[in-house]
Design goal:
By secondary structure, this protein is α/β, with parallel strands linked by helices. It is built from 18 helices and nine strands. The protein starts with a strand and ends with a helix.
């Protein structure tokens, strides 16, 4: 289930945004349900998504909506109005698109890949992810990396920060003072972007040690949060990326400063939109970036990346379909071996005068016959299962060879 900038306004996304601890809490809540075997939560500045391996679609979806709405303090009906729900192959495609940055506010943005990796790490740490979602997200990370390295949209190195800076005309910051408020992943992108464009960067954060680490990386300076007003007194451009830290700058905080351009990528917002009432002050926040400004990606760039993702989805789904029939194939071969052993024992009883070497030669001949008889059908059924969902080939094998479902389930057990 997905709630993103494509389906919901920023105040809904703000209510749904969660950190790693909150994600872990939601994971624990949804996996208590009998309908959900695995779960992963991805929450970024412009999306909150819950991926699950569910034993019952509607039951699992109801659990997700109930728990997520309760955590965000929203009515379930309000949340449902802003949801997109993806199932099976569509869920695979959506996950790959997200990891590749193709469902982001700025197509091809790189930061999402690290966020997906972090979401996977949290789910692994909480023990809420198994073979199904692990396979999906390991492959999603590989797909995202391919988009970054092999397509023109990925090589552009886009980010929300660079898009916001471009809209404000901040392509060259040489000699200008930029203050970055925050020290998380988005703030790190902001600091690097400002430094790369020639700015003198100051990082301000509530945890001073984090500010120092980020400032050292970009060649800037660090200051504690309690001196932010004095820092703003010598700031030309403000980039605020805290969200959950409770920073909320009002017009009076900016009025007596030289700040003229403000990029606010906090969720919830860090800066009041009323600051634009001040002479010469321009503000670019997430809401405006998403709703008012066209994505800089060209149609050709997007199509190139989409084509890569479509092929990856096709390959992944084919492998999963083939894997789904594998336990039945293994069970069939096990049945063949059982028949062989029974017939071999019967032969020993009926022909007690044969030597051991003779018995073994007959046994190997019988094994080769069984393997040759089963080889082509099992190869063909895997190919057929990989290419189509219109027919249950595993069930056909079970019916044709009278395979016990318990035997198939035993093969499937780890």
């Amino acid at each position: 289930m997905s709630v993103s900038h494509r389906t919901a306004p920023m105040h809904i996304l703000s209510a749904l945004a969660m950190d790693a601890a909150e994600s872990a809490k939601l994971l624990d809540a949804v996996t208590q349900s009998e309908f959900i075997a695995e779960a992963l939560v991805l929450s970024t500045c412009n999306r909150t998504e819950v991926y699950v391996a569910s034993t019952r679609f509607h039951g699992g979806l109801e659990v997700i909506v109930t728990e997520l709405a309760a955590m965000a303090g929203l009515a379930e009906s309000d949340l449902s109005d802003h949801c997109s729900v993806f199932y099976e192959e569509a869920a695979v495609q959506h996950g790959f698109m997200v990891a590749g940055g193709l469902d982001s506010a700025v197509a091809g943005e790189h930061q999402i890949l690290g966020q997906v990796r972090k979401a996977l790490t949290v789910a692994q740490g909480e023990g809420t992810i198994g073979t199904t979602l692990n396979a999906l997200f390991q492959q999603a990370l590989r797909v995202g990396k391919r988009v970054q390295t092999e397509t023109s949209i990925g090589s552009a190195g886009r980010s929300l920060v660079s898009a916001a800076a471009d809209v404000l005309g901040l392509d060259d910051l040489t000699g200008r003072s930029v203050t970055v408020v925050g020290a998380g992943s988005m703030a790190a992108v902001a600091a690097h972007t400002a430094a790369d464009r020639g700015a003198d960067v100051t990082v301000v954060n509530r945890t001073f040690a984090k500010a120092e680490r980020l400032a050292e990386i970009v060649g800037g300076s660090a200051r504690p949060m309690d001196v932010l007003p004095s820092v703003l007194a010598s700031t030309d451009v403000l980039m605020s990326c805290t969200g959950a830290l409770g920073v909320h700058l009002m017009p009076e905080d900016i009025a007596a400063t030289p700040v003229r351009e403000i990029i606010d990528l906090g969720l919830p917002p860090d800066v009041s939109v009323d600051v634009e009432q001040l002479p010469g002050v321009r503000l670019m926040n997430l809401d405006r970036l998403v709703s008012e400004h066209a994505d800089p990606a060209t149609e050709a760039q997007v199509e190139s990346a989409n084509q890569l993702v479509r092929q990856e989805v096709s390959d992944f789904v084919a492998l999963r379909r083939a894997a789904a029939v594998t336990p039945t194939v293994v069970a069939l071969r096990s049945l063949g071996n059982n028949v062989l052993e029974l017939e071999h024992q019967r032969l020993r009883q009926r022909l007690p005068g044969l030597e051991d070497a003779q018995y073994e030669e007959i046994r190997q001949s019988m094994r080769r016959v069984i393997e040759k008889l089963l080889h082509q059908p099992t190869v063909n059924v895997k190919k057929a299962a990989a290419s189509s969902t219109d027919y249950d080939y595993a069930r056909a094998l079970r019916d044709l060879f009278a395979l016990d479902q318990a035997l198939v389930d035993a093969v499937r057990e780890p």
